[in-house]
Amino acid sequence: MGDGMRVKHIGIFGFVAGLGLMTANAALAAETFESQHIGITIGGLSSQGSDARTTGTPAFLALGATVIPKDLSMEEQAIIASLAYGFDTKLSDHWVVGAEIDASYSNLDQKKTFSGAPIAGLAPTGLKTSASEKLDYMATLRGRVGFMPNDNTLFYLTGGLAAGHFEAKADVGVNGSPTLAWSGKDVGAKVGWTVGAGVEYAVSESLSLKGEALYYDLGDISVTAKGNAAVRGVAALNGVDYAYKTDLKGMIARIGLNYRF
Question: Are strands 242-260 and 52-54 parallel, antiparallel or unpaired?
């Protein structure tokens, strides 16, 4: 089993186990969830549906499906760890509203490559086309509305703003001819939205366990790989540039511990 699948299974198992802990033994504490809190979480991130769709120049697209990729699957699993601060206020014996802000680090770093068929006279050993994507930092600012079936358990819905720092690269090389190359990079921050649900269970007056699942969407990014001087010196390659567009979106499943004060 690959590292990605192990991370995915660990994240799912941990999330399910956390839910079980939080909904058991309701008599352990009398936490009202009307307080501030700081917390830590760890879990899994899956960049679902984030294909690198080839959107190169017309001359690049004209090379054909055997030479260049239509798209490259950028779906990947990673670990994400977070620090959070938030507060909750009770509207009644059963209803709670609040807000939370968190900052996260992720080790999502992926690269996918397509090896194309030879091009007579230009690339007799074919082209190697690569797309890579890294999402290292994320933050969310979310409101939440919760329901307390008892004094110890809080089920909630949450949603709000999400932001992330990314690095994306596009590269094309001619196999066996390292002087001919295309490259491009885009680095920056994107702002989008997130929505999810979770459950929190108080194990004492000041400590609670949490399990949470979030969907995030930071919009899309585009990267263009432009040819170097050697490429521009070949008349047949003028105007041949690789570009791709991909979506920064996915799922986060995590468990954590809150200290309430």
Answer: antiparallel
pLDDT tens for each residue of 165-217: 999 999 999 887 778 899 999 999 999 999 999 999 999 989 999 999 999 99
Where are the strands (E) in the chain, listed by range?
36-46, 52-54, 71-72, 77-90, 95-115, 127-150, 153-174, 177-202, 207-227, 242-260
How many residues make up the chain in this entry? 261
65 burial (CB, 10 Å; 0-12 / 13-18 / 19+) is exposed
pLDDT digits (tens, 9 = 90+) for 122-180: 788 888 999 999 999 999 999 999 999 998 999 999 999 999 999 999 999 988 777 88
What domains can be seen in the chain, in order of their start residue? 3-260 (2.40.160.20)
Contact present, 140 and 85 (Cβ < 8 Å): no
Sequence-distant (6+) residues with CB within 8 A of 229 are none
Q: Which residues contact 203 (CB under 8 A, 6 or more apart)?
A: 28, 29, 209
In the numeric block, which tokens belong to residue 5? 């699948």
Distance CA 110, CA 44 (A): 15
Q: Is 4 helix (H, G, I), strand (E, B) or coil?
A: helix
